[in-house]
């Protein structure tokens, strides 16, 4: 029999629903409640390490209709704290499916909540900003002591929880790209290897000296979870890569860490950008692309040094979406050019990166 569960926000608002997947631990599951507006790609959302420790709300009302397809996973297992949907499909239909959502969540110890008004919840998070939340079987009312604990909750630094623990090799005999893994999505590796790259994925705690000792033709700084300012040890190593003038590309958290390595400042967004419909403008060409994004922090454009220039901006709120660097053959983007299942408007950026790797452009990033 399905139990009634509650999602309690730090401002005292609560939502009732039914549990599926794993049962919440005694005392409930706490984390940052965030919403994603993607209409497809729930498997990629579930297995994206950038959601580590978060309670993820899907705004699309029906989730699970094409089942569970391990070939589409972005990592070996989900890292989110809980999964919240309006309705989950109990009988998926897809020739590639190897299971259903409820069993997948149970197998991985992830509690789920369904049957709540996800539109009202999303409006609350959008209007008041991202909040900490608790998924619990305890019924209301909720006292101030519990709400104070929620307001004081802080996720521990997440990159050490999601990075690989040893170097791994992929691909063929083309340019050697080192993927610095801060919670890398598998599709980053797929995009590089299908372009012929030989990829060595290394843990987040790899030093610049160890990276350079691998004799890479280029380094890709991956996506990942959490506050970029929690990773100043990585930032100091990234500074050394800029000094070595190695070709670099940063994606999402990697973009933020590259900016911090150049003296820029990051700040938290009110409710972040999560979904597959974020419009981004290229300031050099004037073109607009639709992008997939998953981040709660942004680089402040007014903090960029003279050696960096703003390249892409978000059309909705004007925030920084990409940076070109002149002190090294490097660039970075806040969005996901490797997006799977889409959109694919910006996949060409991997080709731009390979131009830098192959020394087609001597200074900075000038791909059009």
Give me the number of helical elements: 10
Largest sheet: 10 strands, mixed
By CATH, the topology of the largest domain is Rossmann fold
Strand percentage lies at: 25-35%
Order of helices and strands: EEEHEEEEHEHEHHEEHEHEHEHEEEEEH
- Outline type: globular
Total strands: the figure is: 19
Helix coverage percent: 10-25%
**Top CATH class of the largest domain:** Alpha Beta
Which strand order spans the largest sheet, edge to edge or round the barrel? 10-12-11-13-14-19-18-17-15-16
Average residue pLDDT: 95
What is the SS-derived class?
Answer: alpha/beta
The gist of it:
The protein has helices at residues 42-46, 101-107, 118-128, 144-152, 159-162, 186-193, 208-213, 232-244, 253-261, 348-357, and strands at residues 4-9, 14-21, 29-36, 54-58, 62-63, 82-84, 87-88, 111-114, 131-136, 168-171, 176-180, 198-202, 218-221, 248-251, 266-282, 288-299, 308-314, 320-325, 330-333.
Question: Describe it for me?
Answer:
The protein has 368 residues and is an alpha/beta fold. The chain has 2 domains: 149 residues, Carbamoyl-phosphate synthase small subunit, N-terminal domain (Glucose Oxidase, domain 1, 3-Layer(bba) Sandwich); 199 residues, Rossmann fold (3-Layer(aba) Sandwich), CATH 3.40.50.880. Helices cover 22% and strands 30% of the residues. The protein contains 10 helices and 19 strands. The strands form 3 sheets. It has a 10-stranded mixed sheet, sandwiched between helices. Strands 1-2-8-6-4-3-9 form a 7-stranded mixed barrel. The chain has a two-stranded parallel ribbon with strand order 5-7. Helix 8 crosses helix 9. The longest helix has 13 residues. It is globular.
